[in-house]
Amino acid sequence: AATFGAAAQEYPSKDKTVTIVVPFAAGGPTDRVARDLAEALRKPLGANVVVDNTAGAGSSIGAARVARAAPDGYTLLLNHIGMSTMPALYRKLAFSVPNDFEYLGMVNDVPMTLIARPTMAANNYKELSAWLAQNKGKINLGNAGLGSASHLCGLMFQSAVQIDMTPVPYKGTAPAITDLIGGQIDLLCDQTTNTSGQIEAKKVKAYAVTTQKRLTTPLLKDLPTLAESGLKNFEVTIWHGLYGPKGTPPDIAKKINDALKVALKDPDFIKKQEGLGAVVVTDKRVEPAEHKKFVAAEIDKWTAVIKAAGTYAD
Ligand code: MLT
C-alpha cells in the first residue's frame, strides 16, 4: 500500500548535503580528521559530505549546534575527548553528554606532543623542565579553549610538574600553533595530526609524546614519552567519534554507521591518518552502543582528573 502523508524520504537524498560540523577552527587536528573522513564517507554513504567549522568554547558551541539540529542525518558532529571533559568544566552546557547525542561510531586515537616555540633554548625534556622551573609565572601555554584536548593535556602537564602556566585560548590549535611558531606563546600540547608537519619542518621544538609507549612513525619514534621523562603515569590519547542529534531514526543512524565502517577500512584514509601518527579504530568502539559506553566511562575518568587538577569554568 502507498505510504500516506509525506512518503518516508530515502536517506540520503541526492539533492541534500551531509554536513560534518567541526567544533574547532579550520586547519587544526579535529578539522584534519573530519576532512579525511568526509572524503572516505562520500562513496559508502552515497552522499555529498562536507565539513563546516563552528568553533569556540572548547568545542561546546559546535556540539550545541548539532545537539539542536534536526535529527535527520544531515547534520553530524565530529568531536573528540572534549565530549567527556565538557561536563566537568562547564556548568551551563546547552546540552547533556552522553544523552543528547546519537552515537554513530568512533574514528581514531591520536597521540599528543609537547612542543615549544622554535626559539626555546632547551634541547630536550630535561633542559625544558629546568627552564620551566626558572620561568615560573612567565610561561604562556596555548590551548583551544576549556575542554579542548590541548587544554586537558595542559592541565595534566601543569599538575604533573606543579607549575602554573598562563593559559592562552584560541578557537583551535591551528591558530595556536601559528602563534607558537611566531613566538607569541611558549608551549603547546597538541595532537600529532597537527604537529607532525611542523616538527618535521623544524618550525617548532618537540620534547615528548603523551602516550605511555613511544610512537612508531619514523618522524616521532625518537621522541621520549613524558612518562619516561619523569612524569610516570602521564598518558593522554585523543579519541574522535561521530555523532548526530538525539532522535536520529535508527535506520539513518545504521546507514551512517555502516558507511563509517567502510570508510575506516579505506586504505587511503588509513594511510593519511597513520602518516600523521593517528591510529584508526578497528575495535568494537566503532559500534554505536560501545561508542556510547566508552564516552560515558571517559566522562567519569576525566572528571576525576580535572577535579584533581582543580580547574573549573562557568
Ligand atoms: C584541541 O586542542 O582540542 C584540538 O586540537 C583543537 C583543534 O582541533 O583545533
Automatic annotation (TrEMBL):
TM stretches of this protein: none
Family statement drawn from the similarity comment of this UniProt entry: Belongs to the UPF0065 (bug) family.
Database matches in SUPFAM superfamilies: Periplasmic binding protein-like II
Keywords in alphabetical order: Receptor, Signal
InterPro entries in the record: BUG, Bug_dom1
Family annotation (Pfam families): TctC
Matching PANTHER family: BLR1237 PROTEIN, TRICARBOXYLATE-BINDING PROTEIN
UniProt key word Secreted: no
Name recorded for this polypeptide: Tripartite-type tricarboxylate transporter receptor subunit TctC
